[in-house]
Amino acid sequence: MPVFKPIICSRFFLRICCIVSLGIVFSFTANIDAQAALVASIRPLGFIAAAIADGVIPVEVMLPDGASPHDYALRPTNALQLKKADLLLWVGAKMETFLTGPASSLPAERCITLADLPSVTTLLPKIGEELYDSHVYDKKCRGGNIHHHGDYNMHLWLSPIIARRIAEAINHRLAELMPEKKTKLDNNLYLFKKHLTINDKNIAKILAPFRAKRYVVFHDAYGYFEKYYGLTPSGYFTANPEIQPGAQALHKIRTQLVEQKVTCIFAEPQFRPAVINAVVRGTSVHIGTLDPMGIGIALNKESYARFLSQLTNQYVSCLEKNI
Fold first, then answer.
1. What pTM, to 2 d.p., does this model score?
2. Residue 40 to residue 61: CA distance in whole angstroms
3. Residues near 227 by beta carbon (within 8 Å), at least 6 away in sequence
């Protein structure tokens, strides 16, 4: 008998370990399922979603910090996110190309495609209208490489007006999916709009002294924000961040920096082209950084307002240098 005690004990502990392990696995899986509810394609959309879904369902973001929605490749973890998501929020196929296939396989009620919403598309000026007149290229050079993704500029999240429409769309869809949470969702929407209005007035006051300042952005992404707050950019380096400007275009940019008395050139965390340093060399033009994706900002009910404030401070930190 004594000989078999260790074996019996081993088997006993093995069974206990298996039971505990399975419990951990099931608990972990259940926790993952509980955490995956509303998935936003990019962080700025996650900011808006987090405000409306606060206290209702959690929000996740697909695109990692530092990545660009223009050239991102879908990862297995993203596929798992989509599989478990109750709702996907994205701009559309003209922006997040990596989601075109997966999004089309989702049921309509589980997907909000912002580019298809009538309440949003009515606010999108077509390419060539006033919002996009400012550029450093000749019009003939824009060719088929327009980074506006078709007829419209798809950087929707940079418009405070469109942000309100996005919030309304999220509120409406979640209320359909969770009618028992409608009161909470409506209150969240009210607070989002209230805070956005207060923040809007503050940003307008901060940017007012810089409206006549001339500057150039690397990537043509900020038109909505600039037009809304009355900023006057001289142009941009490239309409498509994946295509570097050629020698002729760079010469023209450098000439315009001097002739138009440009104060700043803004790079981006996602794109740090060496050409910017080369173009400003020997001039008094400063280099700043604009982050249109809100890298590092946590998802919560105040994150979208914080995102716009951060972008405002990034403009000011460079434009104020020549005052």
1. 0.81
2. 5
3. 130, 131
Distance, CA of 319 to CA of 214 (rounded, Å): 8
Q: What distance in Å separates the CA atoms of residue 183 and residue 190, rounded to the nearest whole number? A: 11
* Rounded-to-integer distance, Cα 6 and Cα 27, Å: 31
- CA-nearest of 68, 114, 67 to 93 is 114
Tokens of 84: 């478990």
Q: Tell me, what amino acid is at 195?
A: H
Q: Greatest CA span in the chain, whole angstroms?
A: 98
Q: How far is it, in rounded angstroms, from Cα 133 to Cα 181?
A: 44
The tokens describing 42, both together, are: 């990019």
* CA triple 75-78-83, angle to 5 deg: 130
Q: Which two tokens stand for residue 16?
A: 């206990």
Strand arrangement, sheet containing 286-289: 235-238, 215-219, 264-267, 286-289
The secondary structure of residue 296, as a DSSP letter, is T
Q: Which long-range contacts (CB under 8 A, 24 or more apart) does 231-235 make?
A: 231/207, 231/315, 232/134, 233/134, 234/134, 234/136, 234/260, 234/262, 235/134, 235/135, 235/136, 235/137
Q: Collapsing DSSP states into helix, strand and coil, what is residue 190?
A: helix
Report pLDDT digits (tens) over 131-175. Answer: 333 334 333 222 223 344 446 789 999 999 999 999 999 999 999
Residues composing the chain = 323
Side chain identity at residue 147, one-letter code: H
Q: In whole angstroms, what is the distance from residue 239 CA to residue 140 CA?
A: 13
Q: In whole angstroms, give the CA distance from residue 213 to residue 247.
A: 26
pLDDT digits (tens, 9 = 90+) for 180-232: 999 999 999 999 999 999 999 999 999 999 999 999 998 788 999 999 999 99
CA atoms within 13 A on the CB side of 238: 18
Helix (H, G, I), strand (E, B) or coil at 47: helix
Bridge partner list, 129? none
